[in-house]
Design a protein that fits this description.
One of its GO terms (molecular function) is alanine racemase activity. Catalyzes the interconversion of L-alanine and D-alanine. May also act on other amino acids. One of its GO terms (cellular component) is cytosol. This is Alanine racemase. Its EC number is 5.1.1.1. The chain has about 375 residues and is an alpha/beta fold. It has 2 domains: about 210 residues, Alanine racemase (TIM Barrel, Alpha-Beta Barrel), CATH 3.20.20.10; about 100 residues, Lyase, Ornithine Decarboxylase, Chain A, domain 1 (Beta Barrel). The chain is built from 11 helices and 17 strands. The strands form 4 sheets. Strands 2-3-4-5-6-7-8 form a 7-stranded parallel β-sheet. Helix 4 links the parallel strand 3 and strand 4. The protein is elongated, with a radius of gyration of 24 Å. Bound molecules: pyridoxal-5'-phosphate (PLP). The site of pyridoxal-5'-phosphate (PLP) has 11 residues, from loops.
Amino acid sequence: MVTTTFAFDATLSRLTIDLGAVRQNYRRLRRKLGDVPCAGVVKADGYGLGADHVASVLYEEGCRTFFVATFDEAVGLRQILPEGDIACLNGLLPGTEAAYVEHRLTPVLNDLGQVARWRAHGVKTGAPLAAMLHVDTGMNRLGLDGRQMDQVAEDPALLDGIDWQYVLSHLCAADAPDSPMNAQQLARFTEMRRRLPGAIKASLANSSGIFLGSDYHHDLARPGIALYGGRPSAGGDNPMRCPIRIEGRILQVRTVERGWTVGYGGSWRAGRETRIATVAAGYADGYLRSLSSVGRVAVGGRLCNVVGRVSMDMITVDVTDIDPADTAPGGMVEVLGPTVTPDAMADLAGTIGYELLTSLGSRYVRHYVDSAE
Ligand SMILES: *Cc1c(COP(=O)(O)O)cnc(C)c1O
């Protein structure tokens, strides 16, 4: 993207990321975990917050194990973190073995074919290579399934020749603490670990899993969303701090007479004389179109309804009940942040906070601050 510097402030929207809140969220999870180490999941560019910034502060906080999804993400992170373990969740694609070694990355091996290839590569380099083993306990997405575990039980040598760091599995419903799937997966995980040769350290909990209790903590926790302010349980309180604040500038304020409609499709009609503020944030910025007529923004600390369709670059907001002093064109309003949280807006939009965060557009001017320094 072309960026030009003007002598005036042409910023229409900005995204402020408080790395101090990420630090505090990490510390909070550590307190919950006691002596169990806490990794940091920084896939998808740190859930949209900037993996380089997030990983650096986590490292400063003592985090030494990082998870990403793809090989590219891992190589990028290695530039930022000369030390520390970087594990790649999506598995070992054929032909990438030497590159993993070159960048000192740890693959999470998802089936016995990957295990065999990694062992063979270790033989080539002269020493067993480090890896993690993913076993499937119910997600049915990645990891050794029951049949492959039977093969391992019959022939434990299948796992020889690898320096196993952890065996891990992933919970399907940890954000629903009452779901019977949690205990089922824990029981399967325990059973699968029992069938593995030797004692390999274990990791099961994602963010929500940490809050299910110490039975789920094992030897390493793998939180992502909670670091970025997401709530651990779908129905419960949120003890985490929201590190992001997106503000959009008020471009114009107008009075719409009763009976007129606002926006594309005329989907919203004024039931009274309404003051409408047009705010610079739209779906091209990651402000989901499904927030049309259901989203909220915070103006001068008060919540106002988004009315009418979300456009590409703008939303329209009912500010009838707000002091006009707080709605002067040129002012900034919070469209997502501590007051209108990603979780709350995701509920209204029919999605999850994860999707809102990872959809944050590239158009925002990003500011990083660190309130905890
Ligand atoms: C994304 C992911 C995590 C982190 O999950 P959160 O719900 O964001 O805490 C942990 N483990 C695996 C395998 C993942 O894919």
